[in-house]
Amino acid sequence: MKIAYQWLLRYLPLGQAGWPEALTAEEIAHILTAVGLEVEQVSRFSSIPGGLEGLIVGEVEAVWKHPRADKLQLTRVQIGNGRSLQIVCGAPNVAVGQKVVVALPGTTLHPIDGEPFQLKKTKIRGEDSEGMLCAADEIGLGNDHSGILVLDPAAEPGAPLTKYIEVFRDQVFDIGLTPNRMDAMSHLGVARDLCAYINHHHRLRGSVQWPDISAFPEAGLNPSPIQIEIEAPDACLRYAGLLIEQVRIAPSPTWLQAALESIGVKPINNVVDITNFVLHECGQPLHAFDADAIIGNRVRVRKARPGEHLLTLDGKDRQLHPDDLMICNEGSPMCIAGVLGGLESGIQSGTQRIFLESAVFHPRFIRQTSFRHGLRTEAALRFEKGVDIARVPYALKRAALLIQELAGGEIRYQPVDVYPARQTPPHVRLSKPYLISLSGKSYADEQVIPLLEDLGFELITADAQGWTWQVPSFKQDVRQAADLVEEIMRIDGLDQIPIPSQITITPSHHPLRLQESLRESLSAFLVAQGFREIYTNSISNSQLYSVYPSESIVPLLNHLNAALDVLRPSMLENGLECVAYNQRHRNEPIAFFEFGKTYHPNGKNGYLEQAYLAIWLAGDHHISWWAEPQRPPHPLGWFLMKGLVENILQLSGIEKFAFRPTHTHPRLKPALELATAATTLGILGAVDTATSKALDLQPPVYYAAILWDELVQARARQQIIFQEIIPYPVVRRDISFLVDKHIPYIRIQQELETSHAPYLKTWQLIDLFESEKLEAGKKSCTLSLYFQHPERTLTDEEVEQSLQQITHQLQQALQIQLRQ
Question: What is this structure's pTM?
């Protein structure tokens, strides 16, 4: 945001109430940065490029032909103090006695067309030229290049050109405005913060100098012939208008053009320039209609109808969306509300009657329309952040008085102000103990009350415990006591907070600490296993997710890139693109992991974010070495991924979990669901053939996705128990048995867990064998069972009894047959 220094000074009480007579741009920049309006740059502005610096008045004393050039002439020019220069000139209108513009060697010229250049003493066709006689376009004064610029005969030779041609100079602050500071999106808003700071730090009571609108005629006006109807009160919160007649459209005066140009706004005509001036003065966007274009003398604020379109001021015929808020006459749209006006209802050179609009539109509608049509106008930027609804009449009257002064307009009719649902200013209670605890500083009443009043807050009640404040309508980011503390601290200065000699810290446990600690430990584990962490874009291409139901995908309404049009419903596809890229570049084996989120619709207007730890594996992860026989590449698959997931769960403190076959994922075949007794934790599987072919992958590629929030919650439920290592020996017994082929290993695990066999500590599947030599429909399993007593060495009889109990349980539940 740009704020002009000279423009800003108009609203400061300089020389009043003890205030200094002047403030430098450097002092203002320092104060603005201190109060949170960071000044990123202070640049210089000149209404004429270069400011005519280095140009002086000269008088032509003699003119003669150049001896070696037909179109050039030699001149002798007197530049004051009896000094004359010889200058070569090609202008056809140069003549003796003229007062002309002289640029001396070393002067930098700023032509209208072309880059600035520095003039040097030179020879032209063998003749010395000690300067240059300038045309208007060569010094930024216009487009005329027909001859040199001839000045008033009374001009004094040697005098600077700026003595006869006025140049408006200023300094411009580039402020990095944060999104919550809509109250500072104007010169008066910035002046408010300046006044509060200076008053507070120097114990003064100066106030912002708002332009006087008391000259606006409040009595004797006729009822307005133009009426206003708000048909969309959810989108238009307030709409005021004023009919002004006998307007003369003309260029704006120099001071107004210079003010707008200093902040980068191009002057157009007096009426449009006044609306832009008031916008940047007080932050209220305005729009001026040609009143003759308001058919039926009725302004209707409504949503666009199907099939409607509008030719806007930029010359484009725009198809309107049903959610676009429009300003219409009796029959058709005239303007996209809060964004851009229509060409047919705009101010023309012959316009004599105008209808001036001052309104407040809901930020959501303006932002959506602005992005939908690609129109990021100054008005839209302010409406989408929120404007001061109480300032609507003031801005209307301020602009009307300027139009009366600068365009001859006559105010004969009463303003029309439609305000469907009046807003009640909120009240916020601020207690003194809370202010001290949050700010770290004790403030007296005589510090807090004037400071907040200077910022526009109204004191409702005050007592020994604190204050109740009414929040002004332009402070839409202040809704709780902490916001008031922030206002006090930024004006008082964060550097004013005292640092105590002792700092006491109370250790506390925070849920985020568990989450971050788990993330760090799992990341370290995966990196140690050779994995690389990746970050993929959560905004993705909808074509990647064609296999998912459309109702499970969140589309972007205002995407800037056709290839990035949805929020991803799955982590899988973005990672597979990374896998394919690295496979094409022979960066194998591939082991990636990512902490990321997926996005899903959740109800009518809600959305659901799900956090995941996602893992991708591809290629041969076996590292060959010199003592190992050569073998062909053999990609490791299921068991590597499954073991990796098991290790992750164990590192997370989850000991009891299970893998269950699932067919729910459209791209993983086969796939396993990962679950505990309480919840589902995720999924792992192999990417199917169709997906591998579509994404140009070299199979097999394996994928696992663990629900991060569920993993953290499961970890939080686990109780860590510390115990002494048992010093007594572990006894191992192996059993081999036949079991039906269709029984998965998880069923055997479940039976072992529920067998309650004494002293059974753990077990492990060490062999799985299938052959035609076995009984039909059977497979052979060999388990290693480990027994241990916590207080003594086990006897053989105790181990055998426990083993028999396990065998009996398996025979009863799974009909196993022991092998001899």
Answer: 0.66
